[in-house]
Amino acid sequence: MTETLVPSASASDGPAAPKRLFIKTYGCQMNVYDSERMADVLRPLGYAATDTAESADFVILNTCHIREKAAEKIYSELGKLRELRDIRLAAGQPGLTIAVAGCVAQAEGEEIMRRQPAVDIVVGPQAYHQLPELLTRTARARGERIGADFAPVEKFDALPKARGVTGPTAFLTVQEGCDKFCTFCVVPYTRGAEWSRPVAAVLAEARELAARGVREVTLLGQNVNAYDGEGLDGAPSTLARLAYALADIPGLDRIRYTTSHPNDMSDDLIAAHGELDALMPWLHLPVQSGSDRVLRLMNRKHGRTKYLALIDRIRAVRPDMALSGDFIVGFPGETDADFEQTLDLVRRVGYASAFAFAYSPRPGTPAASMAGPVPAAIARERLHALQALLAEQQLAFNMDKTGRTVDVLFEKPGRHGRQAIGRSPWLQSVHADDADHLIGRIVPVLIKHGQQNSLKGRLMEMALDGA
Fold first, then answer.
1. pTM of the model
2. Which of 285, 354, 355 is nearest to 318 (CA)?
3. Is the peptide bond before 63 cis (omega within 30 degrees of 0)?
4. Domain 405-464 of CATH type 2.40.50.140
5. pLDDT digits 0-9 by tens, 246-275
6. CA 375 to chain centre
7. Distance in angstroms (rounded) separating the CA atoms of residues 48 and 42
């Protein structure tokens, strides 16, 4: 969960005393992107940043439906906001406009309005471009307050071309929705069918980002490697062809993408990892389970053999590829033998990073009514065992970089003195002293020590000399 702040408005953006906006972002990287774009939509209305709900005129909770008890956590937060509004009104102060956005809003819009009348606006992930209109309607105390339709092309057409991005990295949504219908997942119901933005629109936004000093973009999509947006020639493109086109943009030196599905890992995308220098050697490729039986129950449409063969093909063209993944343990019907198959797959692949969760049912998904629930205590025990193995692999991957010189894109100041923090090609966090003047640049760094979650490095002489 992150808190997204709106960049300060310029004199041309709105009135001298701007209204104050606070966005609390839950969940995935696409939600971070969406929060940034909501801020962009609201900036022309005079909304500028504040870092607490207490100092805000408008609070948006940008929600995620993936995590356990996601909706209940939102209702708890809404209760606090309602109390804040009541205190203000009792003191004769201006009230607080409250909005719920994102996937919980999409899935439970009517229920949110029923359970928490303090909410002024509910807006799904495909309709946040309507926020200015919804705000106006709310201010006039009339009109529809729920915007939750699936019209992604309208959303992207309506968003401001200029983005309030600061720093050398940025997210860039290229694909939304999912047609896979995994039995545990709500995304097809909250984000809709798979849809890809046209290549021209993606390139235009990327050029604007590069002009603002962005050196690295992460392409986002629920199934980003299923990208098939209209190409410049009018024919459907692929993610690989899009990556080549992005790499031609001056100043844009690094390209990443997430999240991918194993069934959409095409030959041309695999080949691009061996041919395109800008395409970073990091791949998030969730498998969820190492058991064929559980994978069938999950409706993943691939087995462990296919997944392992795919990893071999990828590493044949990019031997240093860092693999990241997602795992669910305790899925209905999962046995000890099934879980051992997951551990075996993890040992065979060797992950640089991964996310592991104990299964929790999502209302309305097929898995929620499946037989054979795994007792919570057993699921927790399996989760701890898997997380320990993944942590061991992550530490080993980081330690392996000790003594090597790697190119680091410095992104922001560190906690100590003139320290700066950046990312290696493998998405590892790297911190180095006397590097604050290098933010926004890619420089060689000698890795002195690998740690669990980061690397400690020292600038090479050429970086110190400003080369």
1. 0.71
2. 285
3. no
4. yes
5. 999 999 999 999 999 999 999 999 999 999
6. 30
7. 9
